[in-house]
């Protein structure tokens, strides 16, 4: 670290420099600095939604791309996501007050019999980082958990995660239950986890298989946009 770094005072940077610095701080997982940056931008009269999209989502997009390209790895992304969460904690109540738009809403959980959650947590954090509202059901979720959350939350997306070959077939149980209830078409279903692949996703009737969190964000954005366009055209 050079002397300049030690002496960097965020409040002395202009808006553009501050946002650039926040990209770096987010990349490096510096939670305190991100919280300070968010506070400074709000004090300068930035709307909460602008802080979210330009500073935080902008920074997490860089993290997402480098994760996808193998430049960053899970521990670093978790640190970045944790820093993002610090900034989000300040913005969330303000966003709720202003009725700021979200890209969409996602319910996510690990399926019944499976207690792995790092991949799921990463997807949840990256989705939040991209401007989605995320309801995390945690681990070991039976069909009922997904169906109840779907009914209560009216999400755009239902995400299921599994890390075991023995639990991944349960995803089909959930999708079949949705078909039985006549609600399958109401939701985009995304699945992910180490033992899965694209063929499996297709075979069980999911909308998409996402190999990692960065892909999940890109897929979700694409599918939501497509759905909006179809509705607008219809």
Q: What does the model show?
A:
The protein is α/β, with parallel strands linked by helices and 234 residues long. It folds into two domains: 8-100, Methyltransferase, Methionine Synthase (B12-binding Domains), Chain A, domain 1 (Orthogonal Bundle), CATH 1.10.1240; 102-234, Cobalamin-binding domain (Rossmann fold, 3-Layer(aba) Sandwich), CATH 3.40.50.280. It is built from ten helices and five strands, in the order H-H-H-H-H-E-H-E-H-E-H-E-H-E-H. It has helices spanning 3-6, 15-27, 31-43, 48-68, 74-98, 118-129, 143-153, 170-180, 198-204, 213-233, and strands at 105-110, 133-136, 157-161, 188-192, 208-209. A five-stranded parallel sheet has the order 2-1-3-4-5, with helices on both faces. Strand 4, helix 9 (198-204) and strand 5 form a beta-alpha-beta unit. The chain is globular, with a radius of gyration of 19 Å. The model has no long low-confidence stretch (mean pLDDT 92).
